[in-house]
Amino acid sequence: QKEVEQNSGPLSVPEGAIASLNCTYSDRGSQSFFWYRQYSGKSPELIMSIYSNGDKEDGRFTAQLNKASQYVSLLIRDSQPSDSATYLCAVNYSGNTGKLIFGQGTTLQVKP
Amino acid sequence: GAVVSQHPSWVICKSGTSVKIECRSLDFQATTMFWYRQFPKQSLMLMATSNEGSKATYEQGVEKDKFLINHASLTLSTLTVTSAHPEDSSFYICSARDLASGTDYEQFFGPGTRLTVL
Q1: CB–CB of A100/A94 below 8 Å?
Q2: N or C terminus of chain A: which is more exposed, having fewer CB within 10 Å?
Q3: Strand pairing category for A45-50 and A19-25
């Protein structure tokens, strides 16, 4: 059973702080990793994709990948109340037709 | 780019009726689309993979005769919930891959369809 694990939270951070969201996955053959943001009642929105070890930065967001530890994280700098949402980690496993396996999501609350 | 639309955005129907949901890729061709279902406070559950011009591949536990999927063109996939019952009430979301983008494992989601079966 291929799994993607996230802490469901809620993770509460003050406005302006760094929010750190973590995700682990079970299949070492995984190739592609994604972070989606989902506001309540809405569909997921792609924030970041990362394919190789290391950091990838896009504005206030930084994705970090460590394939040896089977770990991917998302850092949100200068957190804003508008960042309050559920963040879904998704992994594309090797040998499939492009299906993504989603974690259960971490709820982030940014308090003014 | 990579815009996916769904129609309708919400639907209320009586138990026993069928409901069709459309998923369209607006600015790209999608040979593969995915259908998900999400219950309140839960994560996305993949129901099936829809391939243009061929039969859909259903996930374990999903009834293919109840959830009919048709992917007749490179920009349109439909999901029909047949003989809907209250337990089918959920948020149905489609996604599509843009193979021309070079990052073909990225999936772009439609806005979702909220189905309520009375």
Answers
A1: no
A2: N
A3: unpaired
Put simply, whether B31 touches A (Cβ < 8 Å) is no
B34 in A contact zone (CB under 8 Å): yes
Distances (CA, A) of A108 to A13, A42, A63, B82: 8, 15, 16, 37
Select the residue from A43, A47, A87 to test the B interface by mutation, using most B Cβ atoms within 10 A: A43
d(CA A72, CA A63): 7
Give the separation between CA A93 and CA B34, rounded to whole angstroms: 15
Q: Could you give phi then psi for residue B106, rounded to 5 degrees?
A: -70, 135
Q: Which amino acid is at A15?
A: E
For β-strands B113-117 and B10-13, DSSP reports them as: parallel
pLDDT in tens, chain B (118 residues): 689 999 999 999 999 999 999 999 998 888 889 999 999 888 899 999 988 888 899 999 999 999 999 988 889 999 999 999 999 999 999 999 876 666 657 889 999 999 999 9
- Nearest CA of chain A to the CA of B69: how many Å? 17
